[in-house]
Each structure stands twice: as structure tokens, then as C-alpha cells.
Design a protein that fits this description.
Helices cover 36% and strands 23% of the residues. The chain contains 13 helices and 16 strands. The strands form three sheets. Strands 9, 10, 13, 14, 15 and 16 form a six-stranded antiparallel beta sheet that branches. A hairpin with a 2-residue loop joins strand 13 (356-360) and strand 14 (363-373).
Amino acid sequence: MTSLIDLWITNQDFFTGKSVHQIINICGDGRLRDGNTTSDEFRTFLQNISSGLLSQYATECIETPFDDSGKVLQDIVNEIGSRMDFAVTNGYYTGRKNKIGCDGIWTAIDGHSIVIEVKTTDAYRIDLDKYAEYRKKLIDIGDIQKDKSSVLMVVGREDTGGLEAQIRGSKHAWDMRLISTDALIKLLLLKENLNDTKTIQQINQILRPQEYTRLDGLIEVIFSTSKDVATEEAEEVELEQEIPDDLPGIHQDRKFHPVNFHEECIRRIQEKLKVPLKKKSRSSYSTADSGTAIVCSISKMHGSEGSAKYWYAFHPYYHDFLSQYDYNYIAYGCGDESKILLIPYQILKPLVPYFWKTDRKGRLYYHVVIYDREGKFVLQVPGRKETIDITNHLL
């Protein structure tokens, strides 16, 4: 029988129009239970699908509940935590004797642990003492630290006024926080459109208890996030404006025309490598098992068919990201997804110092220039006064 992951890699159209309930029915016996093959296959599937589909499935669990919808939402929320760069330990679907019944534990890079509780609704009064007790028991057995832990309630609907008041008026006000599923997904989508690791970590800290009498910390997160997005957009404009006017065959239009076909490129790369890839940041992707990583850059075509030029930025953080993985590639989309160069990073890495570079106020990036000469693709290496034929890396 074809697994969900195999279907996702080879035929994503199969999932169009299917509800998450239908997806569950395809897995094993169609029921989610602790430790069974159905839950294992479903969680693996969630690790590899797009964040947009995660959001769709979460909405279905909340707006059209079904048997196991609470368990499905629990798995989706934990997958969101993983994509936000927490180390995630899944909790139990149902309570067990002598087991701590939290829905998950998220551990940040600095060691702070967040005990997760997922609720599809806050229509009923929630026993906060029970969830505080989960945290206490985890502290007692040494799984988390008292001074580096908190509880996060993730509630399906945005109307959480009753639960907010309940938390504020309780003795747990300094140890618990509350967020809607929709807001959590928005944080994830924001993270996936950033590249600055520091900014991403600051966003994650929003999920911890904070004292906001003084607003400096919150303002710093907002400022860093907007700066990261603005920097990326400015660099894209600079990249095109710095293309020399006298390059052979190039008639540069100085008006910036952004292109965006990253996802189409990644779909083709998945089919080529036969592995599912999920988005890590604006331009980076990896497999769920952290074995393979891709940085995908795209460029519009400069010039004309048969005599075209493509211009990309290579940022130092690309190296930092790719170096964490055993198998790593740089993908260059040339004009559209029909022409993709997939180059092992070990080939490109020693050439980077020889590329043109821009360094403005500490923002350093290199220029990757690729020519298409009637189907022959060559990489320009100005520091070595040569070009390298990379046609064999064309998908």
C-alpha cells in the first residue's frame, strides 16, 4: 500500500479537496491512538506538508469537529512548534495512569521548556490547577526546570475572553499564557518569511510569560521583524540595480519586477530527490529528519531566450544553514520553474569567495551570476576569471 508520504511526494494533487478526516481514514485503521501505526504515519505526514495545509486542517478541526479532531489538532499544534524550531516531545492523546498527561513539551534553544495544552474550545471552565500540576510533576522528575518553564494553552477559537480572565485571576498568572490556534499559525507563517535567526528566536519568546508593564521587549521583537523583512526586500532591489549596464546582451530595465516561484521549484526538487521538503525560512527548506537541506534562490530572466543572464544573492547565513546537514544543495530557479539548477553545496562552497560581493553597513552578500547560452548554463567566477559549465545540474 502506498504511504501518505509517497503520495505527497509524487502526487500532491491527490490531497486537493480532501479533508483531514479523510486523510486520517487513509492511515492504518483510521483511528489515532497512542503508539499505533496510524498516529505514526499521520504525524510523519504532518511533518512534511505545507504550512498552508496545516492551517487548513487546523481550521477543519475547530469548525467541523469529528471523532479524533481534538487529537488531530494536538498533533498539528505540536508540528507547528517543531517548525518554529522548538525541540518537541509529543504528549499522550488520552490520560494514562502514572503518566503525565500534557499534550506536548516544547524546548527552546536556550533550554526554556513550554508545557503545551491544546483545547478546541474554551466554552467550558478549564481546571488550571490540573495543568499547573503537569508542570510541577515534570519539574519533580527532572524533565524541565522550575525557573525555565511555563505552560501555554493553545485554544482553537480566538474568542478566549473567559479563559483569559480565568488565568489572570488565578495563582498561575505568572506561569501560564494563552494563544489561539490562528495566532500561532500566523507566528509560524511570519517565521517562514524571515531569515534572521536572532529575530526568529525573539518571536518564539513571545510564547513565554512576559511582564509587559515595560514594553521595550515587545517593541524590539516588532522592530527586528520589520527590519528583517525590509532588509530582504531592499537587497532584492539592490541586486537588480547593481547589474552593470555594459554586460554583453543585457539591456537592464531599472524598474524592479519581483518574481516568486520558490514553491513551484521546491515541488520539482522533491520529485527529483524523492524526499519531502518543508519550509524553514524565506529561502531555506529541509527534510523532516534533518538529513537534507535546500536553499532556493530565484531570478527573473535578464536578456532574451538563448542569451539570458540570471542574477542571485548568496548570503553568509545560507552557509550557516546548509552546514548543519549531511546532504545540502543550492537551487537556482532561472526565470521560472521550468529551468532549475540543483547544485550540491560542496561544489559551490569553495567558489563563493571569488564572486562579486556587496558590503553595506555590515550587510554582506555575494553575487551569483549564471548565463544561459542556448541551453548551456555557465557560472561566472570573476575572481578566478573563468566560467564553469553547470549544465549537468539542470533538472
